Amino acid sequence: MNSIKIHKKQPTFLELLNTISGWRDTENIFLFNCNVMASPVQLVLLNVETMHYLQVMWSLRSDLNENQRDFIMCSIASWVQSVYESKDGISSSLAVHIFTVNISKLLSQVARTYEASADLPEEAISEWNEFFSQTVYNLLLHIYVQLAESLMSSDVSRSQEHLLAWMGEAVTCCPKDQLMSLQLESTGAESSPTCQIETILHHFCPMLLSRVYCIQIAAYHILNKIINDLHSLESSKVSTVSLTEDICVKKLENLNTVDSEPNLAAEATAAKYPHFEDDDENGRQPNEILMETLMKSWKGIETHLDPSESIDKQFAPSHCTLGYLLTWKLQLHFLRTASSELRADYLRYLETLNLITVLLEDIFSLIPETLVSAYQCRKDELSIANIAFKKKLSCTSAPSSDKLLQNVACLMFEEALETIPATVRQWWRKQDRAFASFIDNFTKLFISPVLCNKEIQNILSLDMNLENIVIRARSTSREIVAVYTMDDVSIEMVIALPDNYPLGSISVRSEQRKGISNSISKKWLLQLNLFLQHQNGNIMDGLRLWKRNIDKKFEGVEECTICCCVVHGTNFQLPKIQCKICRKKFHSICLYKWFNESQNSSCPLCRTLF
């Protein structure tokens, strides 16, 4: 029924709702808090039609009074309790199946409204968050986890898939607070403050690799809610897993054979000064359970492929490839929400295993070249990407497998460019001319307008000024202006984003300066340019890093004479390694690079052997 007809008959619908809510006390027709399998089919169907009616009424939620809203909320809670009491027949009983699907539809509609806080009074939102959602999801998630785990590796029937899809749509609306308080069966022997996060990971990470599409999507959305909390889990751990103990598949080994001529100077330096390389090159392993899932997902793909090839859509089952991409989406979200220092550590670990290179190659093996030519003539830049591939991953609507994987791959590249732009830029510059040109055109067409607009809007809409720096944006020219002031010193810097941002080089120029020499001004601009080009983050992250570098300089901290910076642009460390003769300090990663390239282990300034 369309919304125009509903609003024309609004008074009638509201009066009917009052009548139905009155039956709760006078008629024994509602299947509340009971076993549905023991009820007549006609009564089950009457309750299902009532659920349909309440879905219609919820579209008029702004016109509902408190009693009418309470009736809908209490009905949902009681019907979910009935599903829980009927869980033994959820796969075998058609009546329970239909009942569960329709209460899941009603619940997902109501929960999404509360999630968006749309057209609802604060008291109703508070009541939902504090009482109803806790009651409902504590029951429904237990049923869903049990059902999904039992069917995860099976070929399910269409009716089972329909049931899982709508239950998945409902459980993905579970508020994060309720998810964190859910009492799922623990898979570990010990209890700890972070035990709940690990329990959720242990239950839902394997679901990413399910053969059933809707189970994979529901698992992704649920895990995505807790990704931010993984950092508190990781901070309590020290990564002890050796790189040699990782599941390195054949493709990763093949990548390591490129440029395999031994660098004797590098080997000698590494042997003599192992602490330089260990500290700065190996990095830190991201969350162990996520990493294990990532490697398992690649293993699932690799068994169907020649190890020298990228993902081949004709041979790798779509659920294997989708699980691999979804796990990487979570991994990128994990990196994006990490601090700059931790993100650098995690990236070094992933790059040591060549996992980033593998991911980027696999992404473009799923993106057809015709996608660029199909949209290249359009002028409405910001809408192109939305038309081409911006689709929300929904449990209840699955496109064809090829289209689905193409959409997810395109989204993955956008997220990679947003999260680790410097790493992607370095990879792009190593590609052959034809492939690099395709990547460049794809980025200009689909990604750059979105990310440039996001950078500009972040600065225009948020109070993101740093201490001593005032920032403003020029949206039409894709420029960001930062004015740094310290006592009587000031400099205005203009950051211009290229049309293929963030692949292309960002230009930085100074329009005004006061109290500083031309040489210092040029040095500061060069440092800002280096930070913007080589750090994996957004423009604000680069400005923060540059400001920290300048502040340390004013505090009297000596800069590393190799890179001419106080704070290193990739690992954010201060100079620590000191020459015993000239007393100058260097970044360990800069010194290691110096030893490599000069093929000796002397101080860059006084030439004394370390």
TrEMBL record:
Main location: cytoplasm
Function: E3 ubiquitin-protein ligase. Component of the ribosome quality control complex (RQC), a ribosome-associated complex that mediates ubiquitination and extraction of incompletely synthesized nascent chains for proteasomal degradation.
Entry protein name: E3 ubiquitin-protein ligase listerin
Subcellular localization(s) per the UniProt record: Cytoplasm, Cytosol
Any one GO CC term of the record: RQC complex
GO molecular function, one term: ubiquitin protein ligase activity
TM region positions: none
Summary of subunit composition and partner proteins: Component of the ribosome quality control complex (RQC).
Ranges where the RING-type domain occurs: 560-607
Enzyme class: transferase
PROSITE patterns: ZF_RING_2
Keywords: Acyltransferase, Cytoplasm, Metal-binding, Repeat, Transferase, Ubl conjugation pathway, Zinc, Zinc-finger
Organism field: Acanthosepion pharaonis
EC number: 2.3.2.27
Keyword Repeat tagged: yes
Catalytic activity: S-ubiquitinyl-[E2 ubiquitin-conjugating enzyme]-L-cysteine + [acceptor protein]-L-lysine = [E2 ubiquitin-conjugating enzyme]-L-cysteine + N(6)-ubiquitinyl-[acceptor protein]-L-lysine
Family statement drawn from the similarity comment of this UniProt entry: Belongs to the LTN1 family.
Pfam families in alphabetical order: LTN1_E3_ligase_5th, LTN1_E3_ligase_6th, UBC_like
Pathway in which this enzyme or protein is active: Protein modification; protein ubiquitination
GO biological process, one term: rescue of stalled ribosome
